[in-house]
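User: Hi! I'm working on a homework problem where we have to compare a predicted structure to a textbook description. Could you give me the structure for the chain below?
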Amino acid sequence: MKEPIQDYATVGLVHFMLWKDCIKGGGDPSSVNTILDDPYFGGVEVTWINDDAQRKMVGDSIKRTGKSVAFGAQPVLLTQKLDINHLDESERKKAVEAVVSVIPQAYELGARGFGVLSGKAVEASQHGAAMEQLVKSLVEIGTELKRHGDMPLVLETFDQLDYGKNCLIGPNRDAATIAKEVRKSVPSFGLMLDLSHLPLQGETPQQAWEAAGEYVVHAHIGNCVMNQPEHPMNGDEHPPFCIPEGENCVDELTEYLKVLLDAGFLNKERKPFLSFEVCVFGEWTQDEVIKQSKETLDKAWARV
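Assistant: Happy to help. Predicted structure tokens:
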């Protein structure tokens, strides 16, 4: 493509993955300005910010730049080991309550989407019950979101590997089943695809899109390391693109972008979120990861 990727997508970056000190709701979120002040980016993804003054600072920066923001509640669940498809009803409710508690933060920051993930995968005999629990939780969260405004709820699909996140959702065909059911009560509900997760899921971009594309509203791009237990980035850890041990570089990103473009997901009217989810590794700095990520995306997009 000769036109810039920014004509077809809101290019963003998952702030709390690159600055992990913020993943538990603390740290110094002022680093969000690195993304907001970079003209390459049209948006940023943030998570809970428990300090009121810091949250206001981030909100003011977002308003100053006029850029888009999405809110990731995944850290709320992951860092507290909470599970929205837990078969124990009290545990399920505990997880939902934790997610619901940060909805006001998302609205305060002006987010245009609210991301979550499913809980742990279960034995085959319990799969149906866990899917029902997940639908129940997503409907409850989506209903609460609607009570505050019109922010859509988005479920991110993950792997089912012991050395990864080992989530119920999981395969994109199961994600589509969940989405179809949840949309009966929450019509704006959608799914998030992540290139970083596809190798771990054992799916190609085309297979993932064919399984769940009609429900996809948000996309991530990044890398992963597989089947290397000695590697510090083994599993769903989001290392920089193109490291020798990784799965995704320019070729894989090109394939992913082509699928999203051909399907009409990337388009000039809607400009959906297409966010880097990458982290520092070894001697890499945040600035180096950002620079290399942008270069990788530009090379891949030029090939589409």
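For your comparison, note the following. The radius of gyration is 18 Å. The domain at 5-303 is CATH 3.20.20.150 (TIM Barrel). Good luck with the assignment!
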